[in-house]
Amino acid sequence: MAPLLHLRDVALTFGGHPLLEGAEIAVSAGERVCLVGRNGSGKSTLLKIAAGIVEPDSADRFLQPGATVRYLPQEPDFSGYKTSLAYVEAGLGPGDDPYRARYLVEELGLTGEENPASMSGGESRRAALARVLAPEPDILLLDEPTNHLDLPVIEWLEQELKSLRSAMVLISHDRRFLSSLSRATIWLDRGVTRRVERGFSEFEAWRDEVLAQEELDRHKLDRKIAREEDWLRYGVSARRTRNQRRLGELHALRDQRRTARHAVGSVRLEASEAQASGKLVIEAVDISKSYGDKPIVRNFSIRVARGDCIGIVGPNGAGKTTLINLLTGALAPDSGKIKLGASLEMVTLDQRRESLDPATPLGDALTGGGSDQVMVGGQPRHVISYMKDFLFQPIQRGTAVGALSGGERGRLMLARALAKPSNLLVLDEPTNDLDIETLDLLQELLADYAGTVLLVSHDRDFLDRVVSSTLISDGDGIWTEFAGGYSDMLAQRGRGVGAKARAVPVKAAASETAKSATATVATSKRKLSFNEQHALKTLPQQIEKLQAEAGKLNTALAGDLYTRDPKLFAKATTRLDEVTREIAEAEERWLELEMLREEIGA
Question: Alpha-carbon distance 109 to 528, whole Å?
């Protein structure tokens, strides 16, 4: 089938560095292609060239006569439009249905009367999506369409795109989104493109095979160079003509080795872990929080133990950040009780990168300014070495934070957060703007992290790979916890985020009621013994005394005790270990008894 759009031999150089060298894109009618590659590899630039927005140094671009193309930019331009609907309707062509523009605006949760100058990032993205989808073009070029969208809109967008007949080229870091929609994959790597007729779900295995073959080929080339050098040292000098030819071949081999563009390195992520927290990290009992007449959290209870990774999902505006602030003690509840465990050292990664001053140089953002050293887990590291762990080049040390790309700012925030010792990580949308390889490494870090994690994310695949349980908003301030990741929650709940509840079949409901009644009767026969009641009553005071003793010991050990009295220092260290263990045992025992008491009460 002849392609609707064919882009060949694309070359583009920025600042003396070749960004694209012979890249190619071909899209036929109805095809769904995803364009993948590392942050900074030139994906967005290549898509803009395909859309006719950016002029390359050289390229052959063919577009079928009469074919319509719509491009979704990451940062749409709303200048000159008074309302969001006016912006959307301006994207319609002759013969396009104006009612579809209104339909999409409403489906995406807008009224059409929004002032573009005051729209949020999510509202801007929805208006831009409505503008490119309304004409139902022959080709859709979508650059990060899920950015700033919440889960209900992402899931709606998936279904809407599946129903279209348009050909598509997608750039996204959302694995689930790409796997659901793509049927072919174009990999942009080191300036060139490679295409495989498989969707994204099969791409990564293929990519790993390609990289392994490249490594084997490099090894063979190195061995050939070694053989040629050996021949030059010990070959027969009389064969001068042949020598000169082989010397030329060796120089060519060396040039080939020197100029080969190797795969970009991986981000090295390693969290700086503090001493272990207590067994019980957070306990919330019947907490509620409202703003005016709107309940954000209502009668919510949860126990978070050391090592838990809790995912928090819900529509925009459901109160995910408010819930995190309540659980971490940053915000007081209107009613109910929050208890934080012993020895907590918390590090927070905010979703809007608000703690970064745009004028601050990259190096100063890591060191705090005035130093070449970054304290990583209490140990000094040279700032250049630490920058390289996160794929920053030494020349970028003086680059202002405001000049960094979204992905680079995301990596910088991770670098800052992970340098601090912690046993509680609070991550609010950490996956924003990160490429897929960095997401993989962040996933591995969280899997190996010995502390506790609270994670807000709209990335369904990332949630499935990382969290031990999922908290979801059911609306009206109600939050429910489900074991497992997003897919597990979906299976248990029977619906996604923002979806309406399904009717429960009468037989199933009756069966569940019977099971519940049986369990209640069985539990009601059990009563707390006198010793259990006494322990339940006295353990909180015992834990407080132990925590106070641990605080005093930490203070003593932080001073010059080792210099003054090494024996006393060793004794205090041993006692601190004992106290920490006793706190964990007491909290675990209290937790068991409290759960038993609630079961009996129920």
Answer: 52
- Give pLDDT, residue 231: 54
**How many domains are there within the chain?**
4
Q: What is the pLDDT of residue 509?
A: 40
Q: How far is Cα 25 from Cα 37, in angstroms, rounded to an integer?
A: 14
Residue ranges, the chain, pLDDT below 50:
236-241, 257, 261-262, 499-525
**Which three-class secondary structure string do you get for 25-65?**
EEECCCCEEEEECCCCCCHHHHHHHHHCCCCCCEEEEEECC
Question: For position 273, what pLDDT does the model report?
Answer: 56
Q: What is residue 374's three-state secondary structure?
A: strand
What is the C-alpha to C-alpha distance for residues 349 and 360, in angstroms, rounded to an integer?
18
Q: What is the pLDDT of residue 372?
A: 86
The phi and psi torsions of 69 (rounded to 5 degrees) equal -125, 135
Q: Which two tokens stand for residue 451?
A: 């502390």
Q: What tokens does 502 get?
A: 């399904």
Distances (CA, A) of 32 to 28, 201, 205: 9, 13, 20
Tell me: the pLDDT tens digits for 124-141?
A: 999 999 999 999 999 999
**Half-sphere exposure for 294 (CA within 13 Å, toward CB):** 7
Residue 115 neighbours by CB distance under 10 Å: 11
Residues 297 and 422 in one domain: yes
- Answer yes or no: do 344 and 492 share one domain: yes
Name the region of 477 (left: φ>0; alpha: ψ -120 to 50; beta: rest): left
Give backbone dihedrals phi and psi of 281, rounded to 5 degrees, phi first: -95, -50
Look at the pTM and tell me if it is higher than 0.85: no
Same domain, 511 and 565: no
CB proximity list for 9: less than 8 A, separation 6 or greater: 22, 24, 58, 59, 60
Name the residue among 274, 227, 260 with its Cα closest to residue 246. 227
Q: What amino acid is encoded at 274 in this protein?
A: A
Domain presence at residue 524:
no
- Report the C-alpha gap between 434 and 500 in whole angstroms: 32
Cα 63 to Cα 581: distance, rounded to the nearest angstrom: 70
Q: Determine the pLDDT at residue 387.
A: 86
Instruction: Supply the pLDDT for residue 572.
Output: 81
Provide the β-strand partners of residue 25. Answer: 7
Closest CA to 411 of 433, 379, 440: 433
Determine the Cα–Cα distance for residues 158 and 82; give it in Å rounded to an integer: 29
| 353 in the same domain as 246 | no
Q: In the 8-state DSSP scheme, what is residue 505?
A: P
526 burial type by CB count under 10 A (0-12 exposed, 13-18 middle, 19+ buried):
exposed
Per the CB < 8 A criterion, the answer to whether 23 and 188 are in contact is yes
CA 138, CA 590: separation in Å to the nearest integer?
64
CA distance 163 to 171: 19
Residue 554 vs residues 276, 547, 548, 577: alpha-carbon distances, Å = 13, 10, 10, 11
Q: What is residue 445's predicted lDDT score, i.e. its pLDDT?
A: 78
The pLDDT score that the predictor gives to residue 519 is 44
Domain residue limits at 211: 205-259
Quote the pLDDT of residue 355: 61
CATH at 336 = 3.40.50.300
Q: Residue 474 in 3-state DSSP?
A: strand
Is the separation of the CB atoms in 477 and 453 below 8 Å?
A: no
452 DSSP β-pair partners: 424
Name the residue among 585, 590, 582 with its Cα closest to residue 553. 582
Residue 217, pLDDT score: 77
